[in-house]
């Protein structure tokens, strides 16, 4: 024992530094930018809602799925392992995917699906974005149960442009079907009819007490008085835009689609599928003698059927006393707008403005290289011979289109065929820049509502500044269409009702602080004008985020060519990219 080395006593300052270094190294968040690794196991799990038990396709057995948390600047690796019979892809909705198009996720656009027993690692870096986004399946209607939040924290030592909230809470809106949604859309596409609608809306997977057999399945948001909470609201519903309101509480909107906005107050919000909205909820200074319902219900202007129900959660103030006290409190209800409140929606969307300050500028293209005018809406396809169809007119099938082209998904992935110069027979680059047959878009619809079918794309040279007017039509009913562009954010520089007027409307465009987002509603019987800079090479899907319209063909693709610099080119595909 006598030879044992004597312990070295470090000077206290050095010991402190070493201890600090050790603690810092244990906490990865202190690194400037790190790599975050996730594994998404795609499995079946039984869930019961509305007294119906269904086997859901899930990520890691969770419904809704797990949170993906990262900081701005982090690299994210998500290994998706498919243990189910269905083909799977995952889309990281709203992530810019700068030169990482192989990780974007839409089936047959940027990748072939992940087949049973196969795996694929999505590899992307979050650049210049912070806020709330979402991930979801991007094949058929599987996103009805495969979805979850993406929470992008600001860089270290960066703060929010508003007061730091006491707590942050993701709130995801979804839809519940008592039957398998895959069977619902398969039947609709076969018969040509409108698909059966969902049986309930959900808040964080729970329908709430307004539905049969669901009082126990109610989301409760427990809060303390005199605090500010950040609610990260996500609409992951398949086919429905939703109003949201909390009784007797005003919300402050501070961000949408992971872009900070000039804060504004609202009692009721509208969120389309694919959109996210961060709001500050200031709780009452003293314990109120009530609990408060939060409601989410549909906005719909079309002519078909829709799920006209309301999901409810409860805002509960934590009482120091026992829970018995809660049972005696009344629960106050908010009032949602009528389901077809188009005027409310137009006024609400106009309130969104980019911060547009030195730190968070709005880089709106002030000049435009290429202008496009796309009609978006419904139409019909002829019924196949010797079959009977249940579409809108005599023996037709429902369809949907952009510039009257109903997009047909190929059987191989567009990005692969483009990258390897094998696009012959896969897609053509003659997507129409304007409607081939102009008509009174929002007036009396034309007699011929047939669409053309094809796999067509628009080709843009790198760094082209684009202005796109999206014009809704009244064919088979004027409907709102939340359009989502992959790989980009865009600026909504104008919106209006009726037919867009290229001579008058541009003078009212907002080129100073327009809202920047990845999904924007084309108003029912109206139009929006958007601008973006094509600075991200790849093949990028653009589609309506109402899945029924996507399935019917309201979708198209932009091919953005490589730029001259090495960091402006698409790299070769990863070795584990799924094969068709």
TrEMBL record:
One of its GO terms (biological process) is lignin catabolic process. The keyword Oxidoreductase applies. PANTHER family: LACCASE (PTHR11709:SF493), MULTI-COPPER OXIDASE (PTHR11709). This is laccase. It is found in: Secreted, Extracellular space, Apoplast. Its cofactor is Cu cation. It comes from the Eukaryota. The lineage of its organism: Eukaryota, Viridiplantae, Streptophyta, Embryophyta, Tracheophyta. Keywords: Apoplast, Copper, Glycoprotein, Lignin degradation, Metal-binding, Oxidoreductase, Repeat, Secreted, Signal. Residues 42-155, 168-319, 431-562 form the Plastocyanin-like domain. PROSITE patterns: MULTICOPPER_OXIDASE1, MULTICOPPER_OXIDASE2. Pfam families: Cu-oxidase (PF00394), Cu-oxidase_2 (PF07731), Cu-oxidase_3 (PF07732). One of its GO terms (cellular component) is apoplast. Residues 1-33 form the signal peptide. Its EC number is 1.10.3.2. Belongs to the multicopper oxidase family. It catalyses: 4 hydroquinone + O2 = 4 benzosemiquinone + 2 H2O.
